[in-house]
Structure formats: C-alpha cells, structure tokens
Design a protein that fits this description.
five-stranded mixed β-sheet; single chain; globular; alpha+beta; 219 residues
Length: 219
Amino acid sequence: MTDRPILYSFRRCPYAMRARMALAIAGQSCVLREVLLRDKPDAMIAASPKATVPVLVLPDGTVIDESLDVMRWALGVGDPEDWLEPDAETTDALIAANDGPFKHHLDRYKYATRYDTDPIEHRTAASAILAALDARLENQGNLVRGDRSFADIAIFPFVRQFAATDRDWFDGEPWLALRAWLDRHIGSALFKSVMGKYQPWSAGDPETVWPDTAMPRSG
C-alpha cells in the first residue's frame, strides 16, 4: 500500500472535478489513477463495488467513495480558504438541490437519447433552478459569501456541464450573474490545475503522483 491516498478519477466527471479541487486546495498529494468509465479497473471495483468515481483509498485501507465525503476529508487535512466556514445549512440546501433535481434534469437534457426524454422539458425545469442561483449571485460574488467556498466548488462543475450542452442558448438567457460566476470559476487557476490530461491507468502501470505542481490558492 502506498503512503499516499489513491484517487480513482475521470477527468470530465463533475463529481470527480469537485473532489480533485478540494484535494488540490488542501495540498493533499495522491496517487492518481485515471479511469475509463467503459473499462473500470478491477482494483477500483474491489475497493468500491458501486464503481463510480471518485474513489479515494487511504493508506490505512479506508475507502471514501462519495465526492462530498472526499471533499470534507480533504478539507480536514487543510482548509486554507475556509471553505467549510460558511453557513452549513445554506450550503447543504444548495448542494441538495444541485445533486438532486438539477442533476436529474441535467442528465435528461444532455443525454436525452439515452434516457428517451424531451430535452426541452428538462432544460426548462433545470433553468428554474439556475434562475434561483442567478438571483442569489446578484448581490454577492459567490453562492454563500463573497469568496468561493464549499458550495461553489461542489456545484459549478454541474452548471458547467449544463452550459456546455448548448452554450449559445445558455448565453442567451438573462443570467448575467450566473454566467459571470461560472466563467470565473472555469477560468480560475484552481480549476485549470485539476484538469490536466492523464493516460488511463492499468494494473502494473507506473504510478502518477498528483498534483505535480503547487496548487494555487484564492481567486
């Protein structure tokens, strides 16, 4: 067993993105194992039979396989920007709306053929949630306070995925504060630092220590 946690991740997964950002801001070094979702490694499935990313395996063998729990564990190691400081009740409610109804509608909008759904119906339903976020952001820079915190990092990867489905349509909506917030987080040094491309890992491959550079703070 390595003396670093092992992180099974998939670059484009929003759940994995938010976990990587928390690990990065905490300054927690990991062994990164990039996976292909269509060809998941046996070691990951053995660690977490539900076989979804992210999966974090600690040096003592403890497995953390929910993205929010990975974030909280990482911030227990180091929380230099006080992401856990803002109102926990507000944060929990925002994330519950994102991970529940918004994610439901996002999937059925983005993957309408897979789900055999009407994408416009689900885009409209998701838009109501985004409009509420936009109204919240009109009076402050981020979702809970002026500076970024846990809620922003947990939620914006999903809004990014929604926006990218039809960016021209998204940019035509009257969500000025939401778009500014999203683009600022997408353009942040932190997000860029966790979006490097790595070859998928297979058993026997050399291990990749991640991150390979110092993580940016604030911004």
